[in-house]
Amino acid sequence: MSADIIISIRHLYKVFGRHPQRAMKMLREGLSKEEILEKTGHVVGLSDVNLEMERHKIQVVMGLSGSGKSTLIRHLNRLIAPTEGEILVDGDDVLKMDDNALRDFRRFKISMVFQRFALFPHRTILENIGYGLENQGLAKNRIRDISMQWLERVGLTGFETHYPTQLSGGMQQRVGLARALATDADILLMDEAFSALDPLIRTEMQNILLDLQNELQKTIVFITHDLDEALRIGENIAILRDGVIVQNDVPQNILLNPADSYVASFMKDINRARVLQVQSVMSAARPEDTGPRVRGTTTIETALQIFAESSSDHLIVVNRQDEAIGHLNVEDMIRGMRRPSQTDIAQADASV
Questions:
Q1: d(C-alpha 296, C-alpha 280), whole Å
Q2: How far is CA 169 from the centre of its chain?
Q3: Over the range 211-249, which residues count as b (16 or more CB within 10 Å of their CB) and which as e?
Q4: Which long-range contacts (CB under 8 A, 24 or more apart) does 287-296 make?
Q5: Is CATH 3.40.190.10 what the domain over 55-78+98-249 is classified as, yes or no?
Q6: Distances (CA, A) of 25 to 39, 44, 71, 270
Q7: Domain with CATH 3.90.1280.20 in the chain
Q8: What are the E-state strand segments in the chain?
Q9: What is the DSSP string of 307-340?
């Protein structure tokens, strides 16, 4: 069955400067981002980005500062207009929308959570949550009811009459999340939404997001520069470098098969046992097998603990229906935890 694609980005370019077409000509001639900057003073923000995002999934876009990730997400709701390219959302080209269509698109189809909270200081917490609902034209009593529901959902009961300056950073970000979700938009854009938070609060917000996503099944585009965060919440991860997508894949495949040395450098310090799932390293199922059973989504770290408590020399890997899908032994896990060699990485670089 083919994937249900909700967002399709095709040949997207963004050049910042007064004469972008001059820079575009140089790009097509093969000049690098640095060469174009030196010769023209123009900055290439995105270069031939092609990316499809599945409905009801969390698509992470990550990269270092200046890689183009925030530029990319701001194209999705047309806060930034591209130099060239196409962005389709449920088949509609966002770049061809007139003012009225774009206004409705932002009101009903797509919401955004910003890094620095972007709350209105003169509005109470309840009024901040209800802002998007006001733009949708709902009645005041309906706005209050929905806002109160979301206030409770993000754990801020009792703070409805407070103002943003009276809340901690983590609490303010909960308000931002509640405001975005209250509109019931299909797509949620999150631009470095948790990066300004302390580590413990950041983990708490990730937990809240994952719990809500498990229930609501939104399409979430999540921007981050933090690999641990990307691996924890991302169902697909696109890695940007200098405005170009280097690799887009599920986290397991990025860990096991980095596209080049740039991606491998991101992964080098990751505790692979805590991230890799046994379904990524298992051998083919054997009909005659019996033994302890583990879900395919179990991490290698947990599987090793099960091995230590079991007398069996292998585990049976099963799917959600408890059907055997693979066979797992210690050798499989050790092989999976092996980091790509320099030869592997060199071969990947050569193939790019």
A1: 8
A2: 21
A3: ebbeeeebbbbbbbeebbbbbbbbbbbbbbbbbbbbbbb
A4: 289/314, 289/316, 289/324, 289/327, 290/316, 291/315, 291/316, 292/316, 293/317, 293/318, 293/322, 293/324, 294/318, 294/328, 295/319, 295/320, 296/325, 296/326
A5: no
A6: 12, 12, 21, 40
A7: 272-337
A8: 5-16, 43-54, 58-62, 84-89, 92-93, 110-113, 187-191, 219-224, 236-241, 244-249, 293-295, 315-318, 324-328
A9: HHT-S-S-EEEE-TT--EEEEE-HHHHHHHHPPP
Indicate the class that CATH gives domain 272-337.
alpha beta
Angle at 33 between CA 259 and CA 50, to 5 degrees: 50
Compute the distance between CA of residue 139 and CA of residue 116 in angstroms, rounded to an integer: 29
Name the pairing type of β-strands 187-191 and 110-113. Answer: parallel
pLDDT tens track, the chain, 352 positions: 457 999 999 999 999 999 999 999 999 999 999 999 999 999 999 999 999 999 999 999 998 888 999 999 999 999 999 999 999 999 999 999 999 999 999 999 999 988 777 899 999 999 999 999 999 999 999 999 999 999 999 999 999 999 999 999 889 999 999 999 999 999 999 999 888 888 888 899 999 999 999 999 999 999 998 888 998 899 999 999 999 999 999 988 898 888 888 888 888 878 888 888 889 889 888 877 788 889 988 988 898 888 888 888 889 999 888 888 998 988 888 887 777 656 655 555 556 5
All CATH 3.40.50.300 domain ranges of the chain, comma separated, are 55-78+98-249
Length of the chain: 352
Strand order in the sheet with 58-62: 110-113, 187-191, 219-224, 58-62, 236-241, 244-249
Residue with tokens 């938070």, as numbered in its chain: 197
pTM recorded for the entire structure: 0.87
